[in-house]
């Protein structure tokens, strides 16, 4: 029986490995871009930074230490220099794919950090597997700026799983839709007309503002923003404003809101505030050929008929008055039922004729009609 050479005895003392085999090893040296492992083979194993992580900026000395155990996969038994080329990343990805397959089949909700922003969506990494979430599935509403999600931890489900084509698609939208529907059920179950509720302005248009009431949007129409006149909602409200609003109406899933609270109704104390004989100050809000409408308070306009502007003859209100001008006048008639108030500046002028006041209101009504 022939004696074995030293090299043969040394070879037989180490295990045999093959390409694709999963082996355990211990870190014996680590550099910023390379890890060296003792894998019980005649040659040490090498893991390059590219085979450890997809992060090209990663310093391996910050994540691995000498003595750490590692389970890796053999890429090449001999890399041409007598060393074994290993991969940690690909083995982790295989395990990650299996993890994602189970999550896909079980419709499991996953949580991961957004690692990349692309033109058409965002990416998150789960166990070294990149999950792509298209822009249309990122939110339940249009997102103009996806950059705000970078570094943010989000929840999603896997809606498509095809690792052979390197296609793993996540869906965050369906979770948000389901959450919103649940909140809607809870809110509609307890919300009633007449309730007051806090909300946040979500969007402002020319005809009103949409207010998020906590999963449900309500419409604050321009006509319900104030007892007074509102010409441009965008000058009053902005996205993010916090409001306390009144629920005016609920129809199916639509909620009409209002800021016209009953206790602030300017007509509530009209008999006292706008009693006949009171001398008031108001602002000219608009004019017609037959008279000027004067705002006495937000939501309360009074008619100053052209015949009651001055003892001197006035052809048109615009000849002597201007929009925004502040005037002083006496209330000569109040009709609470029809919310009509009539004014006269003429009666405050000296040497006026009392009999002229008696025919004023009927003339004003006829002119307005």
UniProtKB/TrEMBL annotation:
Superkingdom of source: Bacteria
Database matches in InterPro entries: NA-bd_OB-fold, Ribos_protein_bS1-like, Ribosomal_protein_S1-like, S1_domain
Keyword Cell membrane: no
The S1 motif domain, residue ranges: 20-89, 107-173, 194-260, 277-346
Keyword annotations: Ribonucleoprotein, Ribosomal protein
A cellular component annotation (GO) from this entry: ribosome
PROSITE patterns: S1
Biased composition (Acidic residues): 354-369
SUPFAM superfamilies linked: Nucleic acid-binding proteins
Gene3D superfamilies listed in its UniProt record: Nucleic acid-binding proteins
Chain segments carrying region Disordered: 348-369
Similarity field: Belongs to the bacterial ribosomal protein bS1 family.
NCBIfam families named among the record's database cross-references: PRK06676.1
Protein name per its UniProtKB record: 30S ribosomal protein S1
Gene designation: rpsA
